[in-house]
Design goal:
Low-confidence stretches: none
Strand order of the largest sheet: 1-2
Bound molecules: zinc ion
Radius of gyration: 24 Å
Shape: globular
Order of helices and strands: EEHHHHHHHHHH
Mean pLDDT: 89
Structural class: mainly alpha
Largest sheet: 2 strands, antiparallel
Number of strands: 2
Strand content: under 5%
Distance between the termini: 67 Å
Number of domains: 2
């Protein structure tokens, strides 16, 4: 006999009884009001056990829905957004929720400075670094501030703001998506959904999970052979690898979500990949000025 650890309670709810909704007074049968969605409250819903369960549920986003959505984002980019459009949402996590989980993990385990650009990155490594340098130098000179002190304060402020401002990226990137895939059939909402899906992919898979797996493997191999290969995963190498991943995401999404043939999906995928780089640059530029003005 199979032993069960978790056993579902038998459902003795009366699904045929006609009820009146406590919230909107609509008449309905079943557990939920079909007009406003309010749930029928039973005595056991008010038990301590149920309260503990819902507290636990609120904290365990690593439940079935999260893992299912996560798997779909990797194996079939564009499918989660397509499901939203077709009305299949219950088995998966909402894309906005997924994005915020990804956002949370990125700041918990950052490997690269992509979204929270420190002053050094802004000062030397951007296309607009000239502007940053002159703005900062003027400010320091005018107020007679020490550069080191300014850097420390800037980095702290930028780190705090980036946690809130990453969402700007989702908005920025909706613009190229709506232009490249312009069609009367696609609403702004549809492009926004895909932008959320892509940024969940970008933050969680490309910026947290994959780099940590690669770093782990490199350390393991380095230990095994007694060499130090930890510098192998440089910003430059990983940036190139990221472009390949973005291209994969967009070609698949063009196929699945925008229903395009392989040739068109390939061309648009390449353009969209390039535009991620531009969108990240615009985001960093905005992040610099907001950080600077709010210091
Ligand atoms: Zn109701």
């Amino acid at each position: 006999m199979k032993r069960q650890i978790f056993k579902k309670r038998p459902d003795d709810f009366d699904y045929h009884q006609l009820r009146s909704c406590k919230n909107c007074l609509n008449s309905f049968t079943g557990r939920y009001c079909n007009a406003c969605g309010e749930k029928v409250i039973e005595l056991e819903d008010r038990s301590f056990k149920r309260l503990a369960e819902s507290v636990l549920n609120a904290f365990t986003f690593l439940d079935g829905k999260f893992l299912k959505s996560f798997k779909l984002i990797i194996l079939s980019p564009g499918k989660l957004s397509a499901n939203v459009r077709e009305g299949i949402q219950v088995p998966y996590m909402k894309l906005v929720g997924l994005f915020f989980v990804a956002n949370f993990f990125y700041f918990l385990f950052p490997v690269f400075d992509t979204f929270n650009s420190k002053l050094y990155t802004q000062f030397y490594q951007q296309g607009y670094s000239d502007i940053v340098q002159s703005v900062v130098r003027d400010y320091i000179k005018a107020n007679n501030i020490d550069f080191e002190k300014f850097t420390t304060e800037y980095n702290a402020q930028s780190g705090n703001l980036a946690k809130l401002l990453i969402i700007i990226l989702v908005g920025i990137y909706t613009i190229p998506l709506s232009i490249i895939n312009f069609s009367r059939k696609n609403l702004f909402f549809d492009h926004l959904q895909l932008s959320f899906e892509f940024h969940a992919f970008l933050l969680l898979i490309n910026s947290v999970i994959l780099p940590h797996i690669l770093l782990f493997i490199i350390r393991l191999v380095s230990m095994w052979f007694g060499v130090d290969w930890s510098s192998l995963l440089s910003d430059e190498v990983y940036s190139k690898l990221s472009l390949v991943l973005f291209f994969y995401f967009f070609v698949r999404a063009q196929r699945t979500y925008y229903k395009q043939n392989w040739l068109l999906a390939g061309v648009k995928g390449a353009i969209l990949t390039y535009l991620v780089v531009i969108s990240l640059m615009v985001y960093r530029f905005i992040l610099f000025f907001i950080t600077f003005w709010t210091m």
